[in-house]
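Write out this protein's structure.
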Amino acid sequence: MTSIIRRLPLVVLACMLGVTTACYREAPIPPVEVFRTAEPTQGVRNEAVPVAEAKPEAPDAEATASASPSPAFSGSYTGTPTPDPTPVGHDPSVGADLYTVGRGQTLGWIALRYGCTVDEIVALNDLADANSVFVGQRLLIPVAPSRTSPSLKLVPDSEMVYGPAYIHFDLAEFVASQGGYLASYSERVEGQSLTGVEIVQLIAQRLSVGPRVLLALLELQSGWVTQSAPPSETLVHPLRNYQGYAGLASQLEWAAVRLNEGYYGWKWGGGATIRLVDGTRVAIAPELNPGTAGVQNCLAYLSGTWDEWIWSTGADGFLAVYQRLFGNPFSYAVDPLVPADLAQPELQLPWEAGYTWYLTGGPHGAWGEAGDGSALDFAPSEVHIGCAPSAEWATAAAAGLVVRSQDGQVLLDLDGDGYEQSGWVLFYLHVDGADRVEAGTFLQRGQRIGHPSCEGGFSEATHLHFARRYNGEWIPAGCDRLPMALSGWIAQPNKVPYEGAMMRGTDVRTACECWEDDYNGLLAEGGP
């Protein structure tokens, strides 16, 4: 949510059209300072697979499972890939990118750039005509693939997300055992010094991405996990030299967004294609699972050519590095990650009864531009308070255990097992540090969480950012299968992130950066 300015969104009360890129309003991690006691000697890069000579044996699934399981996860893994039918509604012959119109740009210029027609853009975006565009407008651009991705499955879905398969994973112990550059690395992130392990954990938790996948990508690109002296050109850009993304934290957050972009685009939306750096548009092989689609999408950004991408997504690329570090990825499979008969527990509007808050952001990313569409934004009733903490209270939408409370975030674990990786978890963002509930507190429905503010992530105005996860997977707020329901109000998506509405019966509240009771106001019933 940015400044509170009234806008006129195009409300489409239908299930979201997935897009492979989205408008992201949570700022990336800023540039960082890197600290080491001594610089390593310059290494020679192994362009094939930069891994150390000695590798750990594949983990024993039974030994791994012997750790104390959670009530939501037995500690048992299945071990083999399973068939994955093409998600309903996916058409491999089409795709869509999200594009923001720049100054002086016309639909004709945009169509020429993307190789489509003006009429196709007009039809996809329900525009009145080819002239009804303006600077800053977000448009879906139709794109068609010319090739199909490899069908080799790389990881199960449960590896891609920070879910039950990671309850028994000791990240710090593993990184230390490898003796690589990562084990002694540190940098300043958001004003504090973090170790390499703490950075990987931070990104895994914020974006709910599996740390083993992050480590395998890091090892593939730079050898940081196993090499004490990786190539010098990787020390600032361990994944790839993208402008504005320097340092481990920024690079890993960038990669996590790309992973989620492919995962959720394939599983929940219409993201049926991947775009390579050289402009090649690739259809995702219909038999692939979302976890593999996520890895393929991230590797597309890290590969300069088609041949390089084919190698990295094949048996000798990412998969070989992962296996050398952790063994068979499917030995960690938790299947199904999201059961077909899963139902959302009853949730109420997450603020105190008797108060009206305002829907200022429809379905959009929980943390990043990744297109998971799981979050909604709500502003309290105080008008134009900027980033000052609200005097009003965010509350528990259901009973649960607070498993994390820091940096503007509160995670409420509804199954009470103490693990954010398993079961239903509610995610609150921009909760001010003053009076914020402490981790370890068990809350009943309606009890206070804290005051909305701008703390955590990026925000230009006080509001509450609210999302759901199940077994580590962000659940889209507006999907037909599991729509977010709060006190009977059902989230309705739009083709464009942050647009959309909520409905209860025939009543509609439309996302708007405004305070209008009948337009976007939502009253929590009852007395204060």
